[in-house]
Write the C-alpha cells for this entry.
Amino acid sequence: MTQGAFLCSDAGLRDVDGEWIVDGDPTEGALVSVAMKAGIAPDFEAKAWPRTDVIPFESEHRFMATLHHDDEGHAVIYVKGAPERVLEMCEAQKAYGGDEPLDRDYWHVRMEEMAAGGQRVLALAVRETASDHRQLRFADVENGLTLVGLFGLLDPPRQEAIDAVARCRAAGIRVKMITGDHARTASAVAEQLGLERVTEILTGQQLDSLDEERFRDRALNVDVFARTSPEHKLRLVQALQSNLEVVAMTGDGVNDAPALKRADVGVAMGLKGTEAAKEASEMVLADDNFATIAHAVEEGRTVYDNLKKAITFILPTNGGEALTIIAAILLGRLLPITPVQILWVNMITAVTLALALAFEPPETDVMGRPPRGAREPLLSRFLVWRIVFVSTILLLGTFGLFVWEREQGASVELARTVAVNTLVMFEVFYLFSTRYLRRSVLNKEGMLGSRPILIAVAIVIGFQLAFTYAPPVQTLFDTRPVSFLSWCMTVLVASTVLFLVEVEKWISRNCHRPLFISK
C-alpha cells in the first residue's frame, strides 16, 4: 500500500537543515511521508518502478492514475483519488490470501467513520497490466481495479483560522466552505471552524439536480458544499451575486480562475496558487492563510473609516469658514477673516489636522459592525447633516467673538486675530470629536489615545502662537497680540463644538431610529 502511495504522487520531501520540506501538494506530501516511515526508499523505488505514463488529477474525474514498469517486464497501474469514485472503478479488494470480491458496504462504512472524524479520505487501487502497455487511457482504469485501502489525513483547522472565522461572523460576513472533500469531512471541519450552518451539507451531485431558483435559494442559505467542481464554484458565485450579495472567492487552481474572475473580490493563494488563479484575482495571499483575509477586511474598514473621518473633518471646517464670510457680507459687516488669513488657516491647520486622521488606529468595534451597503454613497445623510451642524457652530462662534471684540473697543486687526484663533481652536476641538464618528471621545483613550493627533495639535498651536505674537508673521498677516482673557474666551467658545457634537452622538446612539445617521 505504501509503495502505491509513493509512486502515485507527484510530491517530494527534502531535508533542509534537519527539517523535512514538502515540494508539491501537501496531501501528496503526507502520503510520501507515510511511505518513507514504512521503509520505502524514494530513490530506489523511483528507479525500480519508473513512471511510464500518468493521468493527472482533475476535479472532473477526481482521481490520479500512474503507469509503472520494472526491469523484469512487470507493469502496474496505481489509482489514487476520492474513495467513492475509486470504489466505482474497483471489482476486488486486497486480502492476506490474495484478492477477494469487493465488500462495498464495509468500505462505505469505513469511509463514513473516517470522514466523521474530520479526516480527508483517499482511496488507493491497483491493477496489473501487460508489459507492452505504455500509454495510459481512461478506459484502462474505469473498471477492473483492486482496492488496496483507504488513507485518512487529519489536518485540523489552526486556531488562528477559527478565530478569523469568528471575527468574520461578528463583522456580518458569511463564511461558506466549498470543497471537493467528502460531505462528512466537510461537515466535521466546518463545525471545528465554527461556521454558522453545518447541519445541512449539499454535494455537487445534489446541486446539479436543482433548478435555477432553488439553486439560488440553497446558495444563500447553505454554508457547506462538498464534492464540488470548479463549475459549481462559478455557479455559486453567480447565484450569490444574483441575490445582491458581495462575494469574495478564494482559490488556487487553474480551474478556479473563472470563479475568481467573476467574484467581486477574487483571492488567490500566493504559495500554492497557479499563475492563472493569481492573474484572475484582485488579491493574492502571500501566506495562504485565511486569517490574513480577516486582517485585510479590518484594514479596509479602517482605511474607509479614516477617509470618512478626514472628509467629515475637512468639509464642516471649510463650511464654517465660508459661512463666516457669507454672513459678514449679508449683514454688511467687516470681514472677520481676510483672504490671506483664510489661506493661512487652510495651509497650516486644516490640512495638518486632517492628515493626522489618516493614522488613526482601528476602532474597537470595527469588526463588530455589519458590512456597509455596496451602493452606500460616501456623502451620506449623516455627513450632510454633520457639515451643516458643525459649520453653523463655527459660524456662530467665530463671527460672534469677532462682533463681541469689536463691541469691546478692540481694533479690527485684533478682532480678526481673535476670530482666526477661534476658528483654529474650533478645528482642534472638532478634530478630537471626529476620531470616533459614533462613539464618545470624552475618555482618556479618546482624548489622549492617538499620538499623531496630539503631535498635529501641538504643531498647530505652535504655529498659531507665531501667527499671533511673532513680529514678522504679524506684519505678513496683519495680526495683533491677544490678551489672556481673549484666549480664555476663545478656548471656552471653541470647546463648545466638542460637547455639542458629543451630545449629537449620544442622541443618535440612544434613539431607536437615529434622525441623522444613515445606516
Summary: The first strand starts at residue 12 and ends at 16. The chain has 21 helices and 15 strands. The two ends are 60 Å apart (CA to CA).
